[in-house]
Design goal:
Elements lengths: L11 E5 L6 H11 L4 E3 L11 H14 L8 H20 L7 E3 L2 H11 L6 H7 L6 E6 L2 H7 L18 H18 L5 E5 L4 H16 L1
Parallel strand pairs: 1-3, 1-4, 2-3, 4-5
Amino acid sequence: MTRQTALSPPPFCVLLGPDYAGKSSALDQLARTAPQWQLLSVDDTHLAPEHALIGRLRRNVVKDVAPHRSAWSPEFFATLLQTAVVHLRDQLLRTDAATPVVVDSYYYKLLAKCRLFGAPDSPLFAWWRSFPQPRRVIYLDVPPETTWRRCRQGADLNLLEHYGPQPAWDGFRRFQRDLAKVMRDEIQGLPVTVIEQQDRPETTTAAIREVLTHEFG
């Protein structure tokens, strides 16, 4: 297997969208039906046993750091979240050159969330933005009204998915709209295909598969 360098990653696309846009469901379906593409995600179901630390660390940031952000510097908060993205980059650069890759939304979403929660632009962000860029971003454009229903009116939210100490519609709506804007800022200049809200998860996955097939051949 050919190992890659930072200058020559395998061809890859990023699947991006707001929280509860359906990214995880689509990745799970692609994993079952599209073995020709390598899927890279920090969701627990896609992490190898030796990489379980990534999932634990992400959950502990939500549990131990997010509720007490005033006790930590914004840079420390961003550094912890960045570990997941560095892991995605490392796995990307270890992938066979002949295997197209689909990378999950955290590749850009966590940077956007750090900005929304007060982390200043810094050399840390400049290094983050120097990571390999995808051939295309597939953006799931799902409105907050829909994602609010999907998170059971806030019951499933964590502190990195809404403004305010407790989940509420207004804090969720404002955060998700700001998140969408900042994510789009981060991917400006990249080829982007927008997939509007679909009626069923299977329809969303089919639309994603069509874009990937066109991109990767």
